[in-house]
Amino acid sequence: MIRLRFIHLLLLFPLCSAFAQDKTLSKEEAVVKALENNYGIEIAKSQIEIADNNASILNSGYLPTLTGTAGATYNNNNTTTEFPGQLDENNIPRPDISVNHAESQRYNGALNLNYTLFDGLGRFYNFKRLKEQYQLSTLQARETIENTMLQMFSVYFEIARLTENKNVQKQALEISNDRIKRAEYSFEYGQNTKLDILNAQVDVTNDSINLLNTDQQLANAKRDLNVILNQNLNEDYEVDTTVVFISKFQIVEFMDNAISNNVAILQTETNLNINAYDIKVNKSGYLPTVGLTGSYGWNRNQSPPSAFLSGTLFPGTNSSANSASLGASLTWNLFDGGGTTVRVKNSKITYANQELLRKQVELEVNRDMQNAMAIYENRLKIYQIQEQNVVTNQNNFERSREQFQLGSITSIEFRQAQINLLNAQTNKNLAKYDAKLAELQLLQLTGQLLNIEL
Question: Would you state the CATH architecture of domain 6-37+121-286+338-451?
Fold first, then answer.
């Protein structure tokens, strides 16, 4: 028996599994391997991680922004200042003044802080919207896991059915081989003709071909399961052929609570919540935005010497400055051309459409559940009939074998009894697993596939 819990299926912690020493793949091991290795589930888990990151405080807009800037400038200049036509106090032409390798350096640094005190509650509702988006991603991952589990069990039970069919066909082949020996002994003692031996050989050939075909189908089904479990395609194993059905009372109880558990309905309700927040986010455009700004800056300048009008050099200077500022701002978009009004109207229409979609999904889920319940009950009845049919054909075969050994019936009549039993057994196997798959599909619709014992 295996119990699936969705909180574990999200794989927030590692799951460990290994094949049993006898190479029997139990249902529990198959589930764990699918959860650990299936590519679709891995992608779904990654989507949950993305939604979780988006719904964090770091993506909410509630935290301030702090930016830092810095700069440095270096100059090295050679300058010559000429005084054409000018004379000094001695009536001598004023000489040129040259300043070589005049270095200047400038350094600055600043920190700027911006914080939005109020934005019309837009970020508040957007943060709630991101939380709902995370919930939606979780539900989408759950849907992926449910579909994967249903696919995995479909293949798993097909392997189980083919395994049981193979055992039945092996028994049929053994019986046919025994017939050849009996026919040869009887022919040696003159109790029958060569025709009986030939008939037995034909039946052995047919049984051998049927067994080979079943072997091939079984190998293909195992490869299909290996793909779902993402393991070596040629991995070989046996499966558990035990099938246990849930009581009808429990299934009816699940159906009564399906509206609050079905993953499709839950997704539509989550989308409805997201659309409700979209309306509020768009309405925030009607309100003002209040923000705070703050900055701190530092500057340092190193200036080189320069020529002075008197013909002398003015010495270089060094200066440093620190500055701090704090401010507040209010921005109110009094009229944006009607853009905000259009967005609000459209978001309300989207919300109304989502309500209609939810009602449609609820109606479809109820229809699908009733159909699935009818199919499940029908297949259960077929399985019960096939079980009784096996008992009847088994008794008929045993009596036919006794009469055949006594020579009261022909080999053809005995072969017919054998075929009837073989068909009854394979039909019973098919009906058993068809009923179980119908049960799983019904459980998926009720939202309980991941919460039951299989």
Answer: Up-down Bundle (1.20)
